[in-house]
Amino acid sequence: xxxxxxxxxxxxxxxxxxxxxxxNNLANADTNGYKKEGTTSQxxxxxxxxxxxxxxxxxxxxxxxxxSMGVHIGETYTDYSAGNYRVTDNEADFALKxxxxxxxxxxxxxxxxxxxxxxxxxxxxNTQGYLVTKDGDFVLNMNDAMNGNVxxxxxxxxxxxxxxxxxxxxxxxxxxxxxIGYVDFEDYNYLAKYGENLYDLVDGGTVIASExxxxxxxxxxSNVNVVSEMVNMITISRAYQAGQKVINAVxxxxxxxxxxxxxx
Length: 264
What we know:
Elements: H1 3-27, E1 37-43, E2 47-50, E3 63-67, E4 71-78, E5 85-87, E6 94-97, E7 101-107, E8 113-118, E9 123-125, E10 131-133, E11 138-139, H2 142-147, E12 163-164, E13 169-172, E14 175-179, E15 182-185, E16 191-194, E17 198-201, E18 207-209, E19 213-216, E20 218-220, H3 226-259
Antiparallel strand pairs: 1-4, 2-3, 5-20, 6-19, 7-8, 7-11, 7-15, 8-17, 9-10, 12-13, 13-14, 15-18, 16-17
């Protein structure tokens, strides 16, 4: 094995995976509540290099030191920082200012319902008066959001104006008719991304009360900075090209070693 080829190859594969994550961020730059992802890189475990067929020390292989076998993706992480807030003046649009997620009863294609969490508060009131997402999934009330119950729906009069205070309480005609369910988590490492801007709480995660404030008539945009991501894309592209040049240089060296030096 030629170490230079292997090191360049692993570097190119690493940059390709970084580019995949970055491209997904750019594709969701306009997705409400989307949280961008990032990557870390790490080296493979160092290998002990020794002399091969060395007889200078009674047949005992002599140590030459350690060498790295290349690089690979360490982990992919999610940046949960808030995106910019966009004013819509739509009474069914909401944004959370602070840590927390709206809880919804998500129904998959097989008809199975489960609790999902999102920062996308672009809701609507359907003809039956239920507060739902753009895809028709029911928004949970506070009590059922804390308990993870998928049956806690919010119903209002679809023909009357609704107002919501900072605690998520819903009012019509100066009477409280419900409250929007939003929660937070002890450890975000127990959140698993589902689709573009939904999250699952995996086993071991704990739901806690959120101290965020609900703002009506606002939508939280993606936290992707397009300019920054484009700069990173150029950096990744140049690193990938550097790996290509290394492979070409090693290939030319091997060609001369085999076809020219070998003929002497």
